[in-house]
Specification:
The complex is a heterodimer of chains A (120) and B (108). With 120 residues, chain A is mainly beta. Chain A is built from no helices and eleven strands. In chain A, strands 2, 4, 5, 6, 9, 10 and 11 form a seven-stranded mixed β-sheet that branches. In chain A, strands 1-3-8-7 form a four-stranded antiparallel β-sheet, with no helix packed on it. In chain A, a hairpin with a 6-residue loop joins β5 and β6. Chain B has no helices and eleven strands. In chain B, the strands form two sheets. In chain B, strands 2, 4, 5, 6, 9, 10 and 11 form a seven-stranded mixed β-sheet that branches. The chains are: A mainly beta (120), B mainly beta (108).
Chain lengths: 120, 108
């Protein structure tokens, strides 16, 4: 059974930093691209960043480029989202998600979500 | 960037009825790389449809997807109580990945 277990998140002041983690199980982790999607309170879904299975190719939404860093440790089946220079508009529930397959950036499994609140 | 516009914003129906949800793209979605998700309150999205028409594993056959180019549809043939939720479309044929704003399916 595929599971994505998220941790991290919480309340942070504007300009601060936070790191999210996502531990995966139930599939061959290193062979799948992974993604973070966020959802502001009461709003829709927004793609944030994606990372290839080997950790070489990474892509960011313009809204987070230069501030967020997506990485993975395939020996630990773990994803990391380092978020720096946080802004009020980054407040959202963040979901990690497993891509369906290579070349198909659609998401068949999702983590439970973790809330990030940026507020002074 | 491809903008996805979903309609209607809210759809009020009764259990047993048929639901038709629309997703229109501002540009052609290449290779019909269009997916649908269901999200119940307080839960993560659930993967329903990919490639415009293919059902994900475990998704009941009352859910079906159709369309190509710029116009796509999610149909739920006979609504069950657990189907009342918010539905999102997503295109993954062009960068950046984009989602529609969602259609809320509510009990009439």
């Amino acid at each position: 059974e595929v599971q994505l277990l998220q941790s991290g998140g919480g309340l942070v002041q504007p300009g601060g930093s936070l790191r999210l983690s996502c531990v995966a199980s139930g599939f061959t982790f290193s062979t799948y691209a992974m993604t973070w999607v966020r959802q502001a309170p009461g709003k829709g879904l927004e793609w944030v960043t994606a990372l290839s299975g080997d950790g070489v190719h990474v892509y960011y939404a313009d809204s987070v480029k230069g501030r967020f860093t997506f990485s993975r440790d395939n020996s630990k089946n773990t994803l990391y989202l380092q978020m720096n220079s946080l802004r009020a508009e980054d407040t959202a529930v963040y979901y990690c998600a497993k891509n369906l397959r290579d070349g198909a950036a659609t998401y068949e499994y999702w983590g439970q979500g973790t809330l990030v609140t940026v507020c002074s | 960037e491809i903008v996805l516009t979903q309609s209607p914003g809210t759809l009020s129906l009764s259990p047993g009825e048929r639901a038709t949800l629309s997703c229109r793209a501002s540009q052609t979605v290449s290779s019909s790389y269009l997916a649908w998700y269901q999200q119940r309150p307080g839960q993560a999205p659930r993967f329903l449809i990919y490639g415009a028409t293919s059902r994900a594993t475990g998704v009941p056959d009352r859910f079906s997807g159709s369309g190509s180019g710029t116009d796509f549809t999610l149909t739920i043939s006979r609504l069950e109580p657990e189907d009342f939720a918010v539905y999102y479309c997503q295109q993954y044929g062009s960068s950046p990945i984009t989602f529609g704003q969602g259609t809320r399916l509510e009990i009439k």
